[in-house]
Amino acid sequence: MSATWGNKLKITIFGESHGSCIGATIDGIEPGIKIDMDLIEKEMSRRAPGRDNLSTQRKEADKAEIISGFFNGYTTGAPLTVLIHNTDIRSKDYSDIKSIARPGHADYSANKKYNGFNDYRGSGHFSGRITAPLVFAGALAKQILKEKYIYIGSHIKSIGHIEDMKFSENDMNRYTFARLNEQRIPLINEYLRQDMESLILEIKDNGDSLGGVVECAIVGMDAGIGSPFFESVESVLSSIIFSVPAVKGLEFGAGFDICKMKGSQANDQFYYDEDSNLKTRTNHNGGINGGITNSMPIIFRVAIKPTSSIAKMQTSINMYKKENIDFKIDGRHDPIIVLRVLPVIEAVSAIAVLDMIYSENY
Amino acid sequence: MSATWGNKLKITIFGESHGSCIGATIDGIEPGIKIDMDLIEKEMSRRAPGRDNLSTQRKEADKAEIISGFFNGYTTGAPLTVLIHNTDIRSKDYSDIKSIARPGHADYSANKKYNGFNDYRGSGHFSGRITAPLVFAGALAKQILKEKYIYIGSHIKSIGHIEDMKFSENDMNRYTFARLNEQRIPLINEYLRQDMESLILEIKDNGDSLGGVVECAIVGMDAGIGSPFFESVESVLSSIIFSVPAVKGLEFGAGFDICKMKGSQANDQFYYDEDSNLKTRTNHNGGINGGITNSMPIIFRVAIKPTSSIAKMQTSINMYKKENIDFKIDGRHDPIIVLRVLPVIEAVSAIAVLDMIYSENY
Amino acid sequence: MSATWGNKLKITIFGESHGSCIGATIDGIEPGIKIDMDLIEKEMSRRAPGRDNLSTQRKEADKAEIISGFFNGYTTGAPLTVLIHNTDIRSKDYSDIKSIARPGHADYSANKKYNGFNDYRGSGHFSGRITAPLVFAGALAKQILKEKYIYIGSHIKSIGHIEDMKFSENDMNRYTFARLNEQRIPLINEYLRQDMESLILEIKDNGDSLGGVVECAIVGMDAGIGSPFFESVESVLSSIIFSVPAVKGLEFGAGFDICKMKGSQANDQFYYDEDSNLKTRTNHNGGINGGITNSMPIIFRVAIKPTSSIAKMQTSINMYKKENIDFKIDGRHDPIIVLRVLPVIEAVSAIAVLDMIYSENY
Amino acid sequence: MSATWGNKLKITIFGESHGSCIGATIDGIEPGIKIDMDLIEKEMSRRAPGRDNLSTQRKEADKAEIISGFFNGYTTGAPLTVLIHNTDIRSKDYSDIKSIARPGHADYSANKKYNGFNDYRGSGHFSGRITAPLVFAGALAKQILKEKYIYIGSHIKSIGHIEDMKFSENDMNRYTFARLNEQRIPLINEYLRQDMESLILEIKDNGDSLGGVVECAIVGMDAGIGSPFFESVESVLSSIIFSVPAVKGLEFGAGFDICKMKGSQANDQFYYDEDSNLKTRTNHNGGINGGITNSMPIIFRVAIKPTSSIAKMQTSINMYKKENIDFKIDGRHDPIIVLRVLPVIEAVSAIAVLDMIYSENY
């Protein structure tokens, strides 16, 4: 049931798609951080809808209002609460869809959990919109991590069947990450962009949707962060990444492909380079051994399913009449949410990394 | 750092490979559960080493001694603590390997985290052996779940390049699960067994190791269990599954393959069957919508890397002399740990499911 | 650092005295509770300032705005977030008092903890005003407890040297509690009211302040709620009661007086009454044995210190110049906060009891 | 239900009075602490029974066996688990007392909570004996705190009606604490010792028991430790102190007496002394303002009830026959447990302080 995540850095989220506002309380942030509002707005705009023809036409300014924990431009150390007002709410009558369990959505499972009392308008508390405050918190975390020379970047590993290459050693640095951060479809191989855009627009015209894979890397973490077992780096990251709606898979380093290697291949051989820095010759373990960082880049890939809301006729059920039905949802949908989930993945990863670092010190 | 997992059902693990014993404290278990010791022993023997030529020759009886929370055959409701004594400890001198960071192992990352104070003998607290108490706890959880008509089963989805088929609807039931539970290499397609055994023995002779994928299913859960966001079924399961050493990937339902589907394919259409039971025509979402169960089987696959300990010459570092070295580890190794990790995956899943159910009630 | 309290029912508070609003997120509340807004407003008005000449003249409507988790009059099961806007903020210049550590206040300790970044205006996040959202949450908890026939009541046990009698068996019931709830100075012995009012007005004229003791009782709890050790009823209640600003002492049952009894007196003898209900002949243990309820009323007393803000000349320090100073605070102060803390004590007790009950079920 | 306490330093306790052993897992302790076993044994012997004629004749060596997290004399950083074997268990038949709810004990409330499945022998998990592992953990915490120049000391403030004086400024230092630590009845005014001993022996001859008050002080804490609200120093300390069996009251600084002061008296005036150290002229707030340390000594008093087990005829109930009875318990009882609870109060305070300090760092 918990709306709160974290050990030392705790984040609590709230709000519903059609309420007056959504938000988050971030507890445990250091006092004295000068918040870079431009950075935050930029990160939030990466997730915001209505940017272009690749996303939903619902327009939300996603303007963050900090109401607590912020004074004279700095964090105070008190709980930092941010509100994001819902502005573009269509006041249409939702009563006709109240009883329909849209496939791929939480309508049925939520109805069961909450005995029908959940706010069903626009998916209510299940709306992807609730990730906006996570992006706010993540932007703040990123800013603090930057001071510790820790950087997070990601790109679209695939959309549908179009595959970008994986991060190579040369791509995992603040400069490439900054470049990717600017792109609407962040790609290592930029020649794929045109194909991907065409595919998205084609599926959009068709009233259908696409999924994809996001690859994310974190560089600059010292060796020794994390824990064996329950708070392994993989556990902590997975716990918050699988909190992001639409995520259905997560793999670290070589991931599922490591299962096809022999031990002699999968083992990343350690060595000291000329400057006596520890390195591994490969990074199949994604920078993590025994749940703990080894100072190599942390790499992981996240599977994101196609947008559940599509403009096609579907079969489903009327939960109240208990009967099978055909139906079609009108409305404004993202033909693909992968582009908008990508900054959320970065954000929650930043939150998790900062919490792990904060939790490490005695 | 946390050795404790869970909300209402809390499990704390402790111990090191070469200490006198390892164990766990299980807090929050209902009073009045008549513990089925045979079932527990059977589950523990599935994980135990030394069963046959497919696993390490280290022999551990893995006999569980309950020292708290158990009285006259029943759980008391007080914290239940179990000890498992380490019996087959070779008293060889470990000082020569103290300084070597074995590739794929936590030697280096742990040394950094613990400033060199960690018990390095036999991987210390990072040993896969620490999962034995998890299997104990999982067996107890399974017993309680059985009373609620919830069953967990799994099979080897792949070893190296040999692929078993996925669970079909017909396989996900208590009878098939019971059959799989009896098998040394649990398979849907049993014709693959001979090939897999041959492959394992071949790699063993070669001093190398193999990885693989475990597929797990949970049936019988009511709709409405789980939460949006931070305690989604995926989050909770992933947090404990990624705690299991050697796990590098996890996917639910169609997993990474869902990224190649269109929304119209990925959406599992709901319908009521003749008995008015809710069903979905496909189960690409693995029984989970919006983080909450929909009553269909929960399905997931876990990527397990090849055993890191191999009998081949490898290159690595001496952490204390800060120099690059060649070395070879002697000792008793599993040519493949997938077979022994499989019951651990079932166990931690049972713990997670029981905690979610316990946490659901007001 | 934690702004969040609770196991299954989690409450997170935020806000500062001079920000735009304060509030709380209540997570884990049952869906389908029809919120009684009148009851909530009434409870909040018990704590609100500016009611009469016995409290500060700062006037705050303390109107609660629910922005999440509430739909069509019922709780949805999603996190319930409430905002309370700060309306009567005097926009005076606080810079002159920024450097003064007011005695009895958190100015100095907060300055040290937050390295001077804390919002010092009107005590910032340390303001007693932050208890308003706790009263909101407590009123909601009380409403749910009432459905379970659990009632909470309290009275002023003492103000300065004027002592009311303790709760007798006859006073601990919903009818007396309802009567006490209506009173500005809730008393068992109502003849003391005039004396207490005179004393308060006298001290107010004198620019000084008073403390007092609140006695609280909870009736209707079944036997078997609570835990040995870390989640004993006393531990759980104390943890949230000592969170209330100005609380310096807490005792259960006979409290400190039990130390002067012999065991033969202190032991509450059990018996079954004519209707076979379990009773104890005395209640020196305050309805709790071994940390667990025994079905008798839970009784406790809370020591509340005099308001720290007084209108007298005091000596203190200038934290920035590091020098000793004389100073006098002007402004609107409560001559006694005990009257306003009393509903907060009831509120946090209700939150704690509901969390304990929610946490009890498997 | 929780057997686990703490944020960053987590302690989990287990065991029952008549099981094979009791113990604790301490998670989150720094690696590299050279454990001072003599110090630990000494602290444990302060709590151990059978020391002299002032305590029960049950003799328990209370020898701690560390089975995890300890290697070559140092903490490893892995969970540290300690076992204490139960040696002096009288194998008498407990079946005759199974059904009796002893007054002052948890027999009835536990029976309700655990549906009769709790181990009732020797109070089972409710036995004061379960505090022995807390003393172990506390001794370890004390050792670490000593390195930070933080010291904890306590004395018997009262037994029955005999009152020692309160801690004066001159008594709160490591030298006086060391002297008190050596005393069987630690007192500021040592002239009272003879009277107290006589009183205890008299009550013992009489088959009855006594309670008392422990006063505890913590010196050396920097200003800025703690939090407003839910993790105030008072909340954190109270939560673990009220976990200790027999504690019925707790007050900080002037405690309940502060309610009789005026604000102008209760406010501790700050000043800088000649060396520019911050001091307060009085310490009625017990070193805590707004939940946060101000660098002055933390002072509190704990009310401990008389031993519930007495050798007198009492009236009570047979829980199974549901009838009122007369009964008398034979056995070995403490005429007063205050002397043995005192080191437990110091221990849990040390645990709490260390956790607060660990939790403070970013």
Task: State the strand order across the main sheet of chain A.
Answer: 1-2-3-7-4
Overall CATH class of chain A:
Alpha Beta
Mean pLDDT of chain A: 94
Fraction of residues in β-strands of chain A: 15-25%
Largest sheet of chain A: 5 strands, antiparallel
Helix run count of chain A: 8
> What structural class do you assign from the helix and strand content of chain A?
alpha+beta
Extended strand count of chain A: 19
CATH architecture of chain A: 4-Layer Sandwich
Q: List SSEs of chain A in N-to-C order.
A: EEEHEEEEEHHEEHHEHEHEEEEEEEH
Oligomer designation = homotetramer
The CATH homologous superfamily of chain A is called Chorismate synthase AroC
Number of domains of chain A: 1
CATH-assigned fold name of chain A: Chorismate synthase, AroC fold
Rg measurement of chain A, Å? 21 Å
Subunit structure (chains A, B, C, D): Homotetramer.
Keywords (chains A, B, C, D): Amino-acid biosynthesis, Aromatic amino acid biosynthesis, FAD, Flavoprotein, FMN, Lyase, NADP
InterPro entries (chains A, B, C, D): Chorismate_synth, Chorismate_synth_AroC_sf, Chorismate_synthase_CS
Binding site for FMN (chains A, B, C, D): 125-127, 290, 305-309, 332
